[in-house]
Hints:
Blueprint: E1 4-5, E2 23-25, E3 27-34, E4 39-46, H1 52-55, E5 56-59, E6 63-71, H2 74-84, H3 89-98, E7 106-112, E8 117-121, E9 130-134, E10 137-141, H4 149-159, H5 164-177, E11 187-194, H6 201-204, E12 205-211, H7 217-242, H8 246-259, H9 264-276, H10 280-293, H11 296-301, H12 314-321
Antiparallel strand pairs: 1-9, 2-6, 3-4, 3-10, 4-11, 5-6, 6-7, 7-8, 9-10, 11-12
Helix pairs in contact: 2-3, 4-5, 5-7, 7-8, 8-9, 9-10
Amino acid sequence: MITRRMPKTSRKKCAGGAGKKTRNAGTYSIIAYDPEAGQIGVAVQSHWFAVGALVAWAKAGVGAVATQSFIEPSYGSSGLEMMGSGKSAPETLAALLAEDGMKDVRQVAMIDVNDGVDAFTGDSCVDDAGHIVGHHFSVQANMMENERVVPMMEKTYAASTGDLAERLLLTLEAAESAGGDIRGRQAAAMLVVRSKATGNYTADRVFDLRVDDHRQPLDELRRLVNVARAYQHMNRGDDVFTRGDFMEAVREYRRSADMLPGLVEAKFWQAVALAAGNRMEAARPIFAEVFSQEPRWRKMVKRLPKAGILPDEANLIDDITGIEVKDRG
């Protein structure tokens, strides 16, 4: 793997420049492209409120950007626009830096869907600061506890397996285990999009998650990734249900319920799909469990025939709503 490591330099006070308002956010982040999965993304953690809204940028079919240290958001918006018009990530980064009178306090990384990747760490970023550019990824950090953070991120991502979201999480967790932000932790975010745009904004965003203020933001981000995966199964269940493939919908809802045992709604739609597929005997105990946990779902059943989700058959609806539940007391 070819890497480019920022050398240690003597640091000076933050340079003046164009006079733009900036926000100082000590941060570690990773941008990466998974060509096999067709995904590109960025993940970040910082001791700064709602850091994801400032640092993480990505657009399906274009690329991803992490802009940090004294943050200039236009690196994200303009960077994606320029890459979308055909410029490579290195060309885009170089062009934007050339126009930035305060580049010495910036830390920026960019990656495009054509294997272009580059990063920059200004001389006035607060120590410990640096970046490593690798094959299909870049890791970068500033205001870190020690100089081990960035190398640990590079090593972890290069050796990690799993889908892109998992590899991004592992890299952030490795940064934290190596010392992380010298000020502590507060917020984290992950944005993963498809490397080929479909034109469907929702479908193009695989993960769009933010933890804006939390004592353990990486733990919470990992939890949210699991919740998102469960709801992806729910969404696929809804999709195949509308196409009349009730048994495949049952399988998708069951996967969701297995991932989130407390998600009563996944069990409810699993039972509905069974009922719609003429499998009432299999649906009955699941409905009973749902009604026992949350009785309001019994009322929901009566609303489904009008929406075309269940047959408009009085006997079927009466059968479902009349299911008795065990006394949990």
